[in-house]
Amino acid sequence: MELIGDGMKKIKYIIITLLLSLIPMLNVEAAMTKVTCGNLGGVASKIPELTSYIVTIVQIAVPIVLVIMGTIDFIKGVTSQKDEEIKKNQQMFVKRLVVAAIVFFAVAIVKLLVSLVDEQNTGNIVECMDCFLSNECKPYTNGTIIQNSTSSNTHPISGMGSVTFDSNVVLNQINTILSTLTSAVTWGQSSSSTGQLTKAKNSILVGDSKTVQMCAAVTKSYNDCEYNSKGKAYNDDFFIASGGQGYAWFKNTAINGVNSRLANNNVKHNIIILMGVNDSCAPNVTDYAQKYFNDISSLAKSSWQNHNVIYVSVTPIIETSQHYAKLQYVRAFNDKMKSLINSAKISNFKYCDIYPTISLVMGRDSNDGLHYTDYLNKEVYNKVMNTCFK
Question: In whole angstroms, what separates CA 115 from the centre of its chain?
Answer without folding.
Answer: 29
